DNA sequence: GCCTCATGTGCAACCAGTTGCCTATGCATC
DNA sequence: GATGCATAGGCAACTGGTTGCACATGAGGC
């Protein structure tokens, strides 16, 4: 149930509406956690019942009213407690790996096409992360303490994307398809 | 619903009981797909109704009878069709990344301990993969065509573990905790 | 004789997350 | 005027997966 905690982190950094949270999940945490807006609204509702967050309506001009959520003291305690819980192993599910193993039983050209697509996705995401890194952390050796966690997450995202990209290249080369 | 396809791949390589499949998921696909035995039994039942697999009971001495599943012709078609479907983006959920972002709001020592634990996990898994690689693919440049997919998946697993390990080291260094 | 471990299969309840749909406003574009 | 897009919020139905438990067998250790 760590989506709750991902939301708590986001709200601890800055209060936001459900809609804004959904967009942040597309960006900042992006690589390491994904959530649809439906899921976010659902969880926000439960979290408000549990007193981890509180909300108030904000009227806006030329766009619909929004409900802005803020973390409560209880929410901060819960978040701190979360950092003290043991961390389980990573879960990942890779369709692409299943397809690779299915090489002898499937359509080689289609699989190669999937790898190419994946490679392009990695390249695009990496470019986005590198742009963020250049903008927000121009000097990685001198990141302020309060931004260190966010920087390390971004750095991990870049590592993962580069790793994925190299793997795609290895696959394409092994399958005799250059580039 | 790619668990089905992961099972089909496994059965296409060799027929197996539910129990065996569960253990294979701990090992070979291991890094890229995880499944509990309950989940596997459930899905196997549905797959048999769908005629993708068929089973027969095998009596054994000194251990319980088992139900061995084999892929059907229809199952092979389904698997081939799967390789032709577009591959969506990878989904991963990293508790550790959430904890890192929670650095300013949580317990630094506990987070460092989690990273150390994660580092140890990566090292252990990597060692296991490298042992498999040395045993089954002593010469990576000359992997037989029918094992190429499996080798590339293993190679991807090693890459990911090495990447994770390096990330942990980067984090520990940034947090001023050597080793 | 009891306990634990490995083998082997399974159910029931629950929870998390996805899919598909719906509402509403205002701006910009065709 | 119609269409599409960004903002903003949400429900209902479903499915995939987890948790917790139960059953059964035989081997090996205390």
TrEMBL record, chains A, B:
<dbReference type="Pfam" id="PF03551">
    <property type="entry name" value="PadR"/>
</dbReference>
<dbReference type="InterPro" id="IPR018309">
    <property type="entry name" value="Tscrpt_reg_PadR_C"/>
</dbReference>
<dbReference type="Pfam" id="PF10400">
    <property type="entry name" value="Vir_act_alpha_C"/>
</dbReference>
<protein>
    <submittedName>
        <fullName>PadR family transcriptional regulator</fullName>
    </submittedName>
</protein>
<feature type="domain" description="Transcription regulator PadR N-terminal">
    <location>
        <begin position="7"/>
        <end position="80"/>
    </location>
</feature>
<feature type="domain" description="Transcription regulator PadR C-terminal">
    <location>
        <begin position="92"/>
        <end position="175"/>
    </location>
</feature>
<dbReference type="InterPro" id="IPR005149">
    <property type="entry name" value="Tscrpt_reg_PadR_N"/>
</dbReference>
<dbReference type="InterPro" id="IPR036390">
    <property type="entry name" value="WH_DNA-bd_sf"/>
</dbReference>
<dbReference type="InterPro" id="IPR036388">
    <property type="entry name" value="WH-like_DNA-bd_sf"/>
</dbReference>
């Amino acid at each position: 149930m760590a989506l709750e905690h991902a939301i708590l982190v986001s709200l601890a950094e800055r209060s936001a509406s459900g809609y804004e949270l959904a967009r942040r999940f597309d960006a900042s945490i992006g690589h390491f956690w994904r959530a649809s807006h439906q899921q976010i609204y659902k969880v926000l509702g439960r979290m408000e019942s549990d007193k981890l967050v509180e909300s108030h309506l904000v009227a806006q001009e030329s766009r619909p009213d929004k409900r802005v959520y803020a973390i409560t003291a209880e929410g901060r305690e819960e978040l701190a407690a979360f950092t003290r819980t043991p961390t389980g192993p990573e879960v990942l599910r890779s369709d692409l790996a299943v397809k690779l193993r299915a090489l002898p039983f499937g359509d080689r050209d289609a699989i190669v096409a999937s790898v190419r697509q994946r490679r392009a996705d990695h390249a695009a995401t990496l470019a986005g992360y590198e742009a963020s890194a250049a903008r927000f952390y121009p000097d990685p050796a001198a990141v302020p303490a309060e931004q260190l966690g966010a920087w390390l997450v971004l750095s991990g995202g870049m590592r993962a994307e580069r790793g994925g990209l190299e793997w795609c290249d290895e696959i394409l080369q092994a399958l005799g398809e250059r580039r």
